[in-house]
Amino acid sequence: MKIKPRRAALALLIAAGVVGGLLYLLLHRPAPSGVLTLYGDVDIRQSQPAFYDTGPVTQLLVSEGAQVTQGELIARIDDSRYAAALAEARQQAANLKAVLTRLLHGTRPDEIARDKATMEGLKAVYANAQINYARTMNLLPHGVVSTQDRDNAQATVRAARENYLAARHTYALAVQGPRREDIISARHAYQAAVAAVAYARQEYIDTRLYSPVNGVIEDRILEPGDMASPETPVYTIALNNPLWVRAYVPEIDLGRIRLGMPATVSTDSYPGRVYRGWVGYLSPTAEFTPKNIETPQLRTALVYQLRVYVCNARDELRLGMPATVHIDLARKGARTASGCGPSHAGHP
Known about the structure:
The protein starts with a helix and ends with a strand. α3 packs antiparallel against α4. The chain contains 5 helices and 16 strands. 20% of the residues are buried. It is an alpha+beta fold. The protein has helices spanning 5-28, 80-105, 109-139, 147-176, 180-205, and strands at residues 35-42, 46-47, 55-60, 67-68, 73-77, 208-210, 215-220, 227-228, 235-238, 244-250, 262-266, 273-282, 287-288, 302-310, 322-328, 342-344. The radius of gyration is 46 Å and the shape is rod-shaped. The protein has 4 domains: 1-30; 32-44 and 239-344, Efflux pump adaptor protein, beta barrel domain (Elongation Factor Tu (Ef-tu), domain 3, Beta Barrel), CATH 2.40.30; 49-75 and 208-233; 84-202, no CATH class. The strands form 3 sheets. A 6-stranded antiparallel barrel has the order 1-10-14-12-11-15. A 4-stranded antiparallel sheet has the order 2-9-7-4, with no helix packed on it.
């Protein structure tokens, strides 16, 4: 049976198309690459220190763009109220310490001797009152003294006896010394005063603001005369060491990434300049592609966050700057911060 010319031509055309398509795919198939290219930006990290105390700002010692180190004094607030409170707390602690010391040392020997002498004197007065009362009672039947004299002598004896007993008790307490409970109470009061001094001293120290990190002053939020509080930051400090580029790895490439792999970073700001780096962090969990790097092809793709720590010897990289990362998949040796410095393309 003969094939019609139109059908034969159509069959030949289809066959040629299939063969051409296969040849195109074969010739243009992407070859396995030893370098993975990712896109991200220099991660923005900031610190916003604030005072622990409240008060008007008296000094701001750094301005925008200044490099600060951890522990450097950067601001002060009015400390007059806190200095007065510290002085008061110290005086109170000194008074209570003196009380505790006196109790621990016990009664002084001269005080014991004084109380003993007082007791002996009142004992003699009591004995003399008893003699006078006996003499009065002997004379009463003979009418030499009156009943009023008898009553007076009897009251004198009673008063002398009570005074003597009180003096004897005082002497006994002086010999025994302070009670254990009084010493414990005085010690606790002194310890509380010492804690109050420490608290007042810390409040005084907190009138000075020290940089909590190494970085660069990005923004000065308050000015002298403004009211500072723990809820109000004074500065915004950009953290630029260590510096890393945050990028996202598609799940299909995850198995080819290892921590410590060498990498290079480049930016549009300095064409042809390459910055050395290494893979320092790889997220253990997946997430959807962040909106700021989302492309139509990856709208629903799961990716893994990756950080490439980068050397910034010339201080050319800025926080938030877009960057391109190239990871050398053929090399698995770990990189360190030693020898950090930018190089030109072709000279890694």
